[in-house]
Amino acid sequence: MSIRPLTLAIALTFAAGLPGCTREAPPADSAPTAAAPAGDTTADAVPAPAEIAAKVAAYAEVPLTADLSHLSEGDRQAIDYLLQAGRIVDALFRRQVYGDLDGLLSTIDDPATRRFVEINYGPWDILDDHRPFVAGVGPRPPGARFYPADMTKEEFAAADLPGKDSPYTIIARDEAGALVVVPYHVEFADELHQVAALLLKAADVASDPKFADYLRLRADALLSGDYQPSDMAWMDMKDSPIDVVIGPIESYQDQLYGLKTAFEAFVLVKDIEWSARLQRFAQHLPALQRGLPVEDRYKAEMPGTDADLNAYFALYYGGDANAGAKTIAINLPNDEEVQLAKGSRRLQLENTMRAKFDTILVPIADALIDPSQRGRITFDAFFENVMFHEVAHGLGIKNTLDGRGTVREALTDLTASYEEGKADILGLYMIGALGGMGELDADKLDDNYVTFLAGIFRSVRFGAGSAHGQANMVAFNFLHERGAFARNAASGTWRVDFAKMREAVDALSAKILTLQGDGDYEAARAFRDQYGKVPAALQADLDALAAREIPVDIVLRQD
Ligand SMILES: [Zn+2]
């Protein structure tokens, strides 16, 4: 039997490329794009003011707070500098992606429309496929302001310009009209000098020397456009009680080529206690792998114990991070050379998760979970389910048993759906196993099952088309078929049968691990097709949720 090394760091890097548990956490909470009336394609057909007011109300407003009392004076001072830097980055992002947003706001009288422009950092509704909501603005340019508005794809392809594909340059025109490459550190020199100076000030007072190293290298990066040394230093930093993610990071705003990165900032305080718990759980990964409820040959790989997974309280979201839906997790760096050298880090944002739990999950559970079990909908269970989902990506099998290659290569387009489904179900398995080891409070395990069920309702309420949505439905239908929960037809609520749930979790774990290990694409597709659809009774319940006006996402009060 060959033991193949499998580190959690690699598993997390792998997860970074998957839908469902990375930055598309927002779509799970997003309103359907189908909300736009069919045939509504003219640029000037914008929603009526009442509809815009309803869209604003669909973002629950929550404060962003964290306990700083345990921090040193220096770290608190550093946070102050980092917040100032974050606000500059926020303004830079407005200019980068929209241009003169204040000028646009000054032309709008309706307060709800103004507020909606602020939430979206522009006149296009991010949760509704960028549908324009201000008359006369027209559709969003796919290339935002990263490229000249009149540039064609042919012109870009033909241009022989060093740096044109760089994530850290814009494409502009010179006085003669020819395309030129302008680095961010030139285009945004004023703002970036201010941000760099604040990072250096923070470095001088922060308690952790490695964090200070990172801040100094990040300041250099903002002024040089060479981000790799600072990404390396960020991965070398393990113990700082505070953190900041700042710079041009994700490329989703560039819908033309997906090349250019948008500026954003997160200012973060580490949850030391949860991070320590996670490290302790990681020690049990080899035992958890051996205990998987599947034949031995499907659990022969050995998981590593070097997870870089931590919990944080967010103090500030700026720029790209604050536009539209709010992410509950960060997976970085994106630089694949740094990932290969140092792995990657996942940051779960606990207070943002709590806000979504309170404003979205609890109202859904109030509608769809049997009243006798609503007391089992708890934030601790929700948070554990998410955290163990992440850890569970490191369990299981990465290479097919026939020795021909990876599960990813064998399952191709089904890979993400199976990997997310595996992480969900093995997360529940881990919770049960850790409860059995005395590592988790056994009395509360049933909370995790009920909260998991409510979490499925939340994830699929706008549709189950994404990889993780399909995985959710496979789990739902498979567990339901085995009696793990049942619907009360009179009340339209759902109730978990805990004994059957435990058995069904083991059965689904075995099924998914076996399909992955066999690498049998046809069997995997047949199983997905059999179980991946939203059943009519559940669809009716989800439709009934619409009348309750449950928020679709949150907007942060952080001034
Ligand atoms: Zn995942």
From TrEMBL:
Residues 23-43 are annotated as: Disordered. GO terms for molecular function: dipeptidyl-peptidase activity; metal ion binding. It comes from the Bacteria. Keywords: Hydrolase, Metal-binding. Residues 25-43 have a biased composition (Low complexity). It holds the Pfam family Peptidase_M49. GO terms for cellular component: cytoplasm. This is Zn-dependent hydrolase. The lineage of its organism: Bacteria, Pseudomonadati, Pseudomonadota, Gammaproteobacteria, Lysobacterales.
